[in-house]
Amino acid sequence: MSSRKHWRARAGTAVLALLAGIGAFAVPAPALADSPSENRQTVSYHGYRIEVPADWKVVDLAENPRACLRFDRPAVYVGRPADQNDCPARIVGRTAGIVVEPITARSAGQATAATARTPRGKAAAPSVASSNDTIQIAVEDAGVLVTAAHTPGTESLVRDALASAELTAGAERTELPRATEKAQTAPLAAAGPQPGSYLGRGFDACTAPSQAAMNAWKSSSPYGAVGVYISGSFRGCSQPNLTASWVTNQTNNGWRLIPIDVGRQAPCTNYSLKMSSDPATAKSQGVTAAAGAITAASNLGIPAGSAIYSDIEAYTSTASCKAAVLSYLSGWTERLHSSGYVSGFYSSAASGIRDAAAEYNNSAYTRVDHIFYAWWNGAADTNTGSYVPSSYWSGHQRIHQYVGEVTESYGGYSINIDRDYLDVGTGTPQQPTCTGANLDFTAYTTVQSGSNGNLVKAAQCLLKAAGHDPGTPDGIFGPDTTTAARNFQSGKGLTADGVVGPKTWTALLSRGTTPTVQSGSTGEAVTRLQRALTAALGRTVAIDGDFGSGTAQAVRDYQSSRGLANDGIAGPATWGALQSGR
Spans of biased composition, class Basic and acidic residues (predicted)? Predict the structure, then answer.
């Protein structure tokens, strides 16, 4: 394609000749006087003009309204997306893409608190935040909503394109409804936690189907649950239908939702967006992914108590790759739990799910609550064969994707889907926490069989939160507490003697997320750090959640005594040492 061509699209006017889907285009008309710079092309729509790389596809949705808005190959989509798009069920991966559509009641439903508005007379907005690797701008003077998807590697490319935007003579102003106007209507929310308690068939598709399609499938298909990709930096499809209103309508009609996040992939794959091979960094990346998924779920009205499934595609497992994936999932799970959500994990039964099952009882990792496994054996059940023991995730905690990439039609609406079978329940036991228990002591003295009191109760609570059940925390160190302590110690590589001494206290008290904290930091992570340092150093560190000079000195003392870089900052290496009981 020439690098000096001018593309122009107006609502209802087709000037882009599509040869086959979005894969090829006819040569455009000769360039106009306002040709873009070398290796760029200009796209104009509805009074909004932008420059993008010359090799990006340009799709006029007035000409091809059912085109799949897919971001696995660079493209610009202009016009109003159809209610129903022709998308393959499985598009994994993202490069970059921009959608420019009119501001309408439908498109306004996609706007969130992160949506920016351009100043009057401008087509570009300075300092726009990216949410879930998506930048969204309402250009009200042109009456368009611009949604730009990117990865960490393509963000600067996308921002350069957005910064080139200009208004043209054809611009007509349409304002995006303000939050105050939306607040006057009844709040939109799912009818309870999702997917809730459900036994039966479901399906997942790359893009949320239209309301008409969902209605038709509800009345005539065998399905009662639908998987929707709500978040993640690696989602391949745009989601023009997926709004809080859509979520409310589906769940009110009896549909169960399977919320899915597609983020970083295993480090031993060829995907462009991968988690770190360093377990501590991978865990931090899982925390970040979960935070984005929680924000997306909240924006859609999917409440706490819902499960959100992290989609990690198939990989060829190695010991280091497995450690990275399970560390990522530990961070993912712990962050979801901190906001009251249930942790789910989607992967191939033969790779990610098998790896998770192999470490099911390893306290070094925080176990996910639900598994959603791809095993295309055609059996609509939740049998996991040799991949997962039947006793694991057996409490209504399974979804089986049993057929992939088939097109089905009900009520006149065809959708390319993966078939799923669900056995899930709201009664799924979540990882317990120690919220409300007293964990703050001036010293964490050794407790063991025969000990009793509040320190024993704290140890019992922490062991239970780590997945090793000592029974009801009653302050009496009996045989069950000894067994739980031994199991925890074994998972950490500590002497498995069932005695909770300094090393075991340190590992128990530091367990959880591992954000970098330093002078000026506050919050729960600082509190955990202060408790763990008190145990590790054998001296009192003030436990107040405020990283002041005393905490900084304690961190430096700990680092010096453990052969770590002595900077007074609790980063991955310091957390790793604490959580291993050093």
Answer: 172-181
